[in-house]
Amino acid sequence: MLVILHSGLKTRIFEAISKAKALTLPVLVSEVQKIDPIEPLSFFFSGSEKYFGERFFWKDASSQSFLVGLGICQQFETDQVTDRFNYVQNEWKRFIENSIIFNPFSHMGVGPALFGGFSFDPLKTKTALWSNYSNSLFHIPKYMLSIIEGQAYLTTNILCTEDDDTSMVEQVWQERERLLLTANRSFSFYRSQLERTEEIQPEAWKKTVDAIVDELKEGPLKKVVLARELRLHFNEPVQVEKVLENLFSEQPDSFIFAFESEGDCFVGASPERLLKKNGNDVFTTCLAGSIKRGKTLEEDKVLGADILADQKNLIEHQYVVDMIKEAMSEVCTEVILPNQPQLMKMRDIQHLYTPVIGKTDDDASLLQIIERLHPTPALGGLPKKEAVEKIREVELLDRGFYAAPIGWLDYRGNGEFAVAIRSGLIQGNEASLFAGCGVVADSDSESEYLETNIKFRPMLTALGGE
Prior knowledge:
466 residues; alpha+beta; 13-stranded mixed β-sheet; 33% helix
């Protein structure tokens, strides 16, 4: 179990209170302890009562890193439409500068970290669907479990003000010990019964695709990604833990995430890394062009060979490769990528995939690079600015955080973000699922509609649908 250094924490809190009085600003005390392994999902569930609406969950695609946060120590949010990436970066930097951090470990994702994401398009009119998520929303958790290559670490974050005193130490000790005792119990999760599935304006969506195809044949646009929504209705509130448990077993090679805000929960299993930064090394992914999985091994090989030779999908994929290579070259001293795409096979779908590796100098921050990459042509279109404007004009859906960056950033500047696709927004007894496809000049609306049905499958299955 946790080895709690009582005297160390008390000393740091006393120092932070004195510092807060001098600065007339809150000061963070962050303490990291190595602990015995805890099941990440059990830790997430242990906060379901006290911290409901204030939790996050992250698993990387390799299942080597898990981050689970409970409670909100500090929140950064803004609905401003310009400079929002720099806003978060600068607020985080200022907050950390005055912090008192005890962390004897060098791993990424251990110690104070920021978790959250951005909306796809801050200029899109917001609807009630996403009313609980700002255009930029990030949480610093009170307690964060980090499991890195099988080793477990607990970060405790305490915000001290000039009006506090060291009596808060006892409360932190007791709360932390109760939390760990609860998290070490075994839990079973229930699945809500899906009662009704509601497609949101499917025929109108197809007509929009047809209109875009006509426009692409004559105008400067090369590609526009159009998304649509599937609304699910259940007999009782959906338990996020059960959804995550299902995603673990059904989508083990994906980035699995959950991010709560004011009672809603955005959850998904994305196959696509947007960016990982570890020191000066950065990694991103070109993922565009997709086809279904085969029912037999032979059929699966044939489908994979088909998409590797299909000009429509290859052109769509190359758009993404060219854009990401150009964006990375602006901030990297070196960019490495293969000449040909390969296949990424998920349970329900297979994609054309090209990995990209880069090296940056010390001036390039993770969020500044993400701003250059978002949205990639796989999620927005080409040219980027004009495609996003067209989506804003014609798309029936308020995307919110769908297809946008979601992930984490630690106090050393390292972190990882995925593209929030294969995702859904859980709201009590209901959930909205989102899926999109790239529309080009030779697209067929019925085929694109069927492609979105395939992309709904990961979340639909995890929620108990067919």
